[in-house]
Amino acid sequence: MGEASRWQGLLAGVSRAECIDDGNVPAAARMVCDAAVAGLGVPRASVWLVDDPPVSMHCVALVDHADPSASNNLSLTHEDYPSYFVAIQAQRCIAVRDCLRDPCCVELVEPYLCPLGIGAMLDTPIHRSGRMVGILCAEHRGGPRTWSEGEQIFTGNLGDLFARAMSSAERMDYEERLEQLNATLERRVEERTARLEQALERLESTQRQLIEREKLAALGSLVAGVAHEINTPVGVAVTAASHGRDLLRALDRDFRAGSLRRGDMQATLDGLGEALDMVQRNVERAAKLVESFKRTAADRTSEKRLDFEANAYVESVLATLGPMLRSRGVALQFERGPDCELTSYPGALAHALSNLVANAALHGFEAGAQGAQLRVVLSCEPEWLLIEVVDNGCGMSEAVLQRAFEPFFTTARAQGGTGLGLTIARSMVEQSLGGSLDVETRPGEGCRFVLRIPRRPVD
């Protein structure tokens, strides 16, 4: 068998070895050394790995037929052997015929070559991805030796096979790390998803608490307004009743004294009639306010689905808001629509409408504004109820409009705004009533909120 055929056979055997494609670097290094010894007829071969940058290298495999137990615990540094490191980086292959006379080996003679009896060596750099990563070193014992071009090509091919093993090792390491990363990532995603779900639950719980607090706060404000409003008719009724009592006492006194005259009797009866009329009118007014308050207050805290007539119900809700609007100098106009029966959730409707009206009163007009007006217009379609809340206030800019329904966004923080009024109104309309809430506005031209809800929402 010729040398070329023998080399081809050795290279084919190394190429087919499992350790090459499995990335078993130590086994591949040992196999390459064995092939170099067999192919070149040298007693000693070794594989070295080079640092990046190449300032040192260490032996990873060594085959020495003269000393099978020779240790591969060897290393060389650029600092100690500069000539060799310069040569190995500059040349594709270092074919040293006579190590004792070659300039690149000058620092290796005393500590390495002479003790081992090495007279010639063939060192081939191993490259991967354009970078030198190692060296395949074949060493001849005895005198000088000339290395043929075929021998140099053969060692170069062995070096390429070892580079393939290193690439396989890197690929397998990458795949293993990628698999571990995927497993870690999957676990992290699960953990983060769990944390997000917990955070979402806390957020939803907090949102429910805020909505309930806002409901109670609005109800408290409603109570205060209605109480203040009731004071007026009750006070008038008390005054009229007191006046009537005084008239009756005077009548009784004159009667007992026998000084009662017909004209005095008639005047007293007329005064008593006026006082009783005044008491009746104001007590009825107070009773109507109380009835409106009781109805809407009960609805606000209830989530029951009921049958009710839209005009009457909206009017009762607006009646409870009258004191708040008057305190802010806002005139309210309610435009009834045709009779419109609903089967829906009056509490959610009351809360949404109250928030829209309160929002207009709080944000729509500057303090002391003259001519502040608010219109609530009701219209009825076969399947839908439409309620428009229109004010002639300052309106909204485009920037404010974009965030109008955003939770906690308010332009009246200093006046006690929470930034939840419109958010809760839209939530009530969309989630509880199954409808929609839209707004049209321009700066200086007021706002027009359109509440559209189904007359019989689908559960």
Please provide a brief summary of the model.
The chain is an alpha+beta fold and 459 residues long.
Give a verbal description of the structure.
It contains eleven helices and 13 strands. With 459 residues, the protein is an alpha+beta fold. The chain has two domains: 3-175, GAF domain (Beta-Lactamase, 2-Layer Sandwich), CATH 3.30.450; 302-459, Histidine kinase-like ATPase, C-terminal domain (Heat Shock Protein 90, 2-Layer Sandwich). A six-stranded antiparallel sheet has the order 3-2-1-6-5-4, sandwiched between helices. The chain has a five-stranded mixed sheet with strand order 8-10-11-13-12. Strand 10 and strand 11 (384-391) form a beta hairpin. Helix 1 packs antiparallel against helix 3 (25-40) and helix 7 crosses helix 8. The relative contact order is 0.07. The mean pLDDT is 82.
Largest sheet: 6 strands, antiparallel
Pattern of helices and strands: HHHEEEHEHEEHHEHEEHEEHHEE
Overall tally of domains = 2
Tell me the structural class: alpha+beta
Give the CATH superfamily of the largest domain.
Answer: GAF domain
Cα shape: rod-shaped
Mean pLDDT score: 82
Radius of gyration: 50 Å
CATH topology tier name of the largest domain: Beta-Lactamase
For the largest beta sheet, what order do the strands appear in spatially? 3-2-1-6-5-4
Query: How many helices?
Result: 11
Annotation, overall tally of beta strands:
13
In the CATH hierarchy, the architecture of the largest domain is 2-Layer Sandwich
Helical content, roughly? 40-55%
